[in-house]
Design a protein that fits this description.
mainly alpha; 286 residues; 2 domains
Length: 286
């Protein structure tokens, strides 16, 4: 009898343990499903904002004027200023030489409206009352602007076709140059968006964005390199050179992209987006 009773108790304990394990598994699964659902809602809200921001660029003909102007300036700097024909080489080296400086002027023209226009029109109050986080709003504006800058770069692919018609360039190098340009544009756009969040005046936002862009680019130029090396300790000078866009873009334009370059673009973009969130939150609390 005792053996039978003991066996019954063991069976019940095993059953209870199995039920407890099933409850824990069910709870874990429910939590995972809820998390997946929340992330899905977060992404859907983000993409809806991206579509809203991106379509806003084409609400007026200014976007098309911008794209045409960018393509025209790129052609002028490639063929005229860069002396493409005189070089006698079918590549896009002159284009990539001047492209970062073109982006330093044209990217702030895109970023200046991202937050300054919202503040000037008063629509930022409506945006902040939507069931979205500040991170979602910041990411949506940046992603829409980055896609638009991607279109601007695509508008210059006529240059790529031209050099293939004139000769046999290394298309892999050119493709990597475009990738590096788009990643660099993302960094400049994030910095410009932070500047735009500081003011309601688009002109001031443009000036601040352009100043940040030129600082990021000029830090890697030979002149600034010489000054930094002469006046600062070597470790400090190297640190300042490491944050320069030029330092990371120039090798990529020649067909060499390292892991350090990729980490630089990602970390710098994340840094400026984080600052953008902080500024928006600060302005909202003020």
């Amino acid at each position: 009898m005792s053996r039978v009773a003991g066996s019954g108790i063991d069976n019940r304990e095993a059953g209870n343990g199995h039920e407890a394990g099933s409850d824990a598994a069910a709870s874990t699964a429910a939590t995972a499903i809820a998390a997946t659902g929340m992330s899905g809602v977060w992404l859907r809200a983000l993409m809806a904002l991206v579509r809203r921001e991106f379509s806003a660029y084409f609400a007026t003909p200014i976007a098309w004027v911008f794209l045409a102007a960018f393509a025209a300036l790129a052609a002028v700097f490639t063929f005229r200023v860069g002396n493409f024909m005189g070089r006698g080489v079918a590549d896009l080296a002159p284009f990539f030489m001047y492209l970062p400086w073109l982006l330093a002027v044209l990217t702030p023209a895109v970023s200046m409206r991202l937050w300054a226009e919202e503040r000037a029109s008063g629509s930022i109050e409506l945006l902040m009352t939507l069931p979205i986080s500040t991170w979602q709003a910041v990411l949506a504006k940046w992603l829409a602007g980055w896609l638009f800058l991607g279109l601007a770069l695509l508008s210059t692919t006529g240059l790529w076709l031209s050099v293939n018609w004139l000769g046999t360039p290394d298309n892999g190098v050119i493709a990597l140059g475009y990738v590096a340009a788009w990643m660099s544009a993302g960094v400049l756009l994030a910095a410009g968006a932070t500047a735009s969040a500081l003011t309601r005046n688009q002109v001031i936002a443009f000036v601040l964005g352009a100043l940040l862009a030129f600082l990021l680019l000029s830090a890697g130029t030979p002149l600034v390199r010489g000054v930094l090396s002469a006046w600062l300790p070597a470790a400090v000078a190297e640190s300042l050179l490491a944050i320069s866009l030029t330092t990371h873009f120039a090798p990529a334009a020649q067909g060499v992209i390292s892991l350090a370059d990729v980490l630089y673009w990602l970390s710098m973009t994340a840094f400026w987006l984080f600052l953008n969130v902080l500024v928006v939150e600060w302005k909202k609390a003020a």
